[in-house]
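Re-running the complex after MR caught last week's input typo. The corrected sequence lines follow. Everything else is unchanged.
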Amino acid sequence: MRAWEKNIRRVAPYVPGEQPKSEKPIKLNTNENPYPPAPGVKQAFKEMDAGQFRKYPDSTSSELIKALSEYYQVEENEVFVGVGSDDVIAMAFMTFFNSELPILFPDVSYSFYKVWADLLHISYETPALDENFCIHKEDYYKANGGIIFPNPNAPTGLLLPLEEVEDIIAHNQDSVIIVDEAYIDFGGESAVRLTRKYENLLVVQTFSKSRSLAGLRIGYAIGHPDLIRAVNDVKNSYNSYTLNMPSIKLGAEAVKDETYFKESLERIVKTREESKLRLKKLGFSFPDSMANFIFATHKDRSAKDIYKALRENHIYVRYFDQPRLDNHLRISIGTDEEMKKFFEFLEVFLSD
Amino acid sequence: MRAWEKNIRRVAPYVPGEQPKSEKPIKLNTNENPYPPAPGVKQAFKEMDAGQFRKYPDSTSSELIKALSEYYQVEENEVFVGVGSDDVIAMAFMTFFNSELPILFPDVSYSFYKVWADLLHISYETPALDENFCIHKEDYYKANGGIIFPNPNAPTGLLLPLEEVEDIIAHNQDSVIIVDEAYIDFGGESAVRLTRKYENLLVVQTFSKSRSLAGLRIGYAIGHPDLIRAVNDVKNSYNSYTLNMPSIKLGAEAVKDETYFKESLERIVKTREESKLRLKKLGFSFPDSMANFIFATHKDRSAKDIYKALRENHIYVRYFDQPRLDNHLRISIGTDEEMKKFFEFLEVFLSD
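Corrected-run output:
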């Protein structure tokens, strides 16, 4: 080993879902929104002047912050934005999780939590979900250096009712609690309103799912101004200008069009509920997802076999080769047309 | 203090140059390029389909990496990209600077180095520049946990000849050496070709200055595949998708148009050299800048007074209220028209 290699940080990186290169894949593997962003986004994009890109963006992303603060009826100093919710959560880990005590997150949840903790040398414990993939709030009643969990949980889609979320926060007033609501718009009740009651609560959301803007990388957090100031200080010690001009401008436009937002959510929820019925008929079972995906296992056929067969036919779903998860498929909700093709294939494949 | 506040990371953030809100400011304070990005960038922007933003970007930014690898005649696995060179350098600090020994950087240089070291709890020493703001290569001959310096240096604009850069690298084969070439295109010789000779050398550049794309936030590093793999692993442990769709696409377009690139550099260099003559005539002195700014001090008038007077007239230059720097102004090179207004004001102001 060369001397300079000794001081390289050793990590086991997160593995994102595949981005297939094939011609017309049916992509049900990364929980993207099957519908395009709001018409106002396209319009604003058309009107942007690429000549202006020679200048730095607004390092405070004020236009986007303003749109979010109006939508959530909070002050601008209660909102933080970053390069996707991954950037927001990584910054929050760096800012808030500096205790000697371990942080807590469910053993089955967003697999990036473990990666961030390892990267930043944060110790952690992972209370186990029960056999139905449910979080038990009592598991979070012990001393800790912070808590994070997704709600709805990933990759199960299960929603923790807001009273239980609040119960966990109420039992933990000595550390920062992060509720990762990447999928909340598809059927859950957000903890945002609890941020006024609990100063140690940070709620994180993203534009990548419900707002159809994964390609622009925008995430945000809402919390007490003291939390927001602290994470902004860390952000400004890392990179002053994170969101670029298109993200700030088009993110703001996406928030403004509430009608389009609600309509596209309704379509996805409708397709999800129909998909649940069809999956059941085909012999699948699954936690009752409130997200834009379904985490399903089949009574007879192995998840890996189904995954491979789908893949050969250019239909991509997510398969996790890990204990407890390796007989499930995470199926993102696509358009009705995409789901039709998915089910047509499954019907033939499963009747073999 | 609330209990959860005890574990907040304490930092003193970097302060970026002001982004004035006034109507038509003359902005000579953040080293932006006064000319728009290449015509191909505008064209590609017009042709982008905002509907595609619903999907995740390519997490490997392969189109941009390919364009850079072709431009620099290196392999794709010798190139890393990030959200501006700040993101690239922050990632590199996290990846490579994990020694017990302090890292080294000049006492007068990019002020973000100290901020990153503090944020990441990296110890450092800052060898002093001499009274003419010159780096002495012998100061970097001692054991260290890594070395970083800008070339040309900021905010002085002074270029270290490539032989001296190589001398520093040759004397330091046990740690990673980062040469931060944010301004190299304006008159210096890049160390990129040395990356094939020294496996521990990482050369960092940016699209924010010479490529007129500060608003898109794109930076990159070139080095041995082992260095690039290590920093990519850390990046993928932090945020899988950093560059968004417009950055990947338009960054690649900017690299392809070499003719426009060379022409706009020539214009800036010509304006810089003319500005040096005019500043001298007006009683200023300055290190001989090879960057797109001039770091000047006046024989009679205090830098702070000149800064304030300019500012009142909507002309913005950068003033650093710090020891050794506080009687200098960092003046970015604007268009000829902007420089004309700047000098017209100075002539009147200094003759008072």
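None of the earlier attempt is carried over here. Chain A touches chain B through 86 residues (CB under 8 Å). Residues 107 and 330 of chain A are 17 Å apart (CA to CA).
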